[in-house]
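Per reviewer request, we include the raw input and output of the structure prediction for the construct analysed in the revised manuscript.
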Amino acid sequence: MNFSLLLPLLLGLIPMLCLGIEYVANAKVSRQVGPLKAVFLFQLLGLPLLILLLPLETHKIDINILYPLALGVVFTFVLLLSFYAIKIGNVSITGPICQTSGFMTFVFGILLLHETLGVLKLASGLLVLGGVILLAVNFKDLKKVNLEMFYKGVPHALVFAVGAGLFMVASAAITREVGWITTSLAIKIAIALTTFVLLITRKNRVSEIFRGIPWKIAILTATLDVISFSTYNFAATKFEVSYLAVFASAASLVVIAIASVFLKEKISSVQKIGVLLTVLGLIGIQFRA
């Protein structure tokens, strides 16, 4: 069997599975210690693993490292929205909506990079929009158009999807110039430092930051985050990002399966259809007409 044919498949499946497990674990920790502390811990715990990978970096570290550092600072505030969404909302709903960042990358590609819009991509985009509406809107209590028409955490997840879509485009471009390990490490350092400063400004003592932490889950999540993000960045230097995004899009299915078992979360039949439409649309977006 030709291993070179299996490599892109493997590199696509690893982030998908890790992201699915990670979302559920993130929700558990975020609900216990808060989104800000959770983000700080996951980035901090993931740093040693990335530092161990530095000898494998093929790019020299130079002034260009400022780009991923700056990107990490900005993305911190976007990432906090995701953690807040899964803290207050149903992970089986907010998780798939957060995953629509792939759809936003597709939209920005058309608007900013003037990429072509074929029939298949248009139809897939409409599927995603339809799926998100079925997932996000509480039709039972729908009386007027305002934020109350959405389920808890959905507005935050939607804003995160937009910001993460831009982040994915920028991260892929920077990775090719700076290197996948350096990019991953610099972004993690920037997020860890930014969240630490935010914790201190909220008058949290350093000793209090590490109090009451579910360490087993936190270490598991940090490890999965490093594996998924680093695998994606490495794969982005070898294969088309659109191919990898197909697998990342299916992470929503992993989220729902795990959340139903460990968090005892349930979603309605309408929302299940929404998840299916969203995943199919995200996958369809990746294929060329």
